[in-house]
Amino acid sequence: MVPVSKDLLPIGRFARLCRLSVKQLRHYDDLGLLAPAWTDPASGYRYYRPAQARDALMIGLLRAMDVPLPVVARVLSGDERAELKAARDRIEADVARRQRGLRLLDRVLAEGLPEHEVSLVREPARRVFTAREPATPATIPDATGACVARLLPRMSPESLLIGLFPLDMEEEFDVRVTVEAADGDDLLPGGAFASAVHVGPYEEIPLTVHGVLAWFGDHGHTPAGPVREVYLSDPATTPPERLETRVQIRVEDSQ
């Protein structure tokens, strides 16, 4: 039995020291994240050593930044730098996604939902090389960039670069980018497509995708994925507001 002494703080005092609630400390104990130094076997009352405050403060700080509890546990186990860097990268990606969302909202607030001229076109089948990268909705730009980088050795100034994105966004999916080549090892199917040209930054392409999908609703057609983005401009030499991208969605019920 460990006697209560000045070296042990009752849970209430320790909670105030660490800016946590008693309920939180009990929860972290139950999870095995921060066990008390001693628990009174008769009353079940928890006591902590002052030296445990550093770990408790770290837990509170990381949780306030929405760092998941499993990551917090690994930080406390000693792999601090790698885990904190990974948590930082996730937060940065989330901030970037939210900033893109804010810019889209600002445009909608200023201009309303944009109107797009949608036409029905027939596309031939194409021989292509394909790069694919796992992604989430927040990491689409990075995944697309990684695909393009892998295709650079196969590209020429005349190359047709096409991004392929799922029609129904799930938590995880594959982003694909293709480049047309006579000796390509993949076949990109042809068919009838609803098509519209997006002018502006890539991050605003979802507005045009929604415009094309609205066309499907207006005309009673059924869309079939993936969504195609045909990149018509060179982002290295074209200002973002002047980038042109053809958005195409296959018409499933068209002959």
UniProtKB/TrEMBL annotation:
UniProt cross-references to SMART domains, sorted A to Z: AraC_E_bind, HTH_MERR
Instruction: List UniProt keywords, sorted A-Z.
Output: DNA-binding
Q: What is this protein called?
A: MerR family transcriptional regulator
- List the CDD domains hit by this protein, alphabetically: HTH_BmrR
Q: Which residues form the HTH merR-type domain?
A: 8-78
Q: Which domain of life is it from?
A: Bacteria
Q: Which segment of the chain is annotated as a signal peptide?
A: none
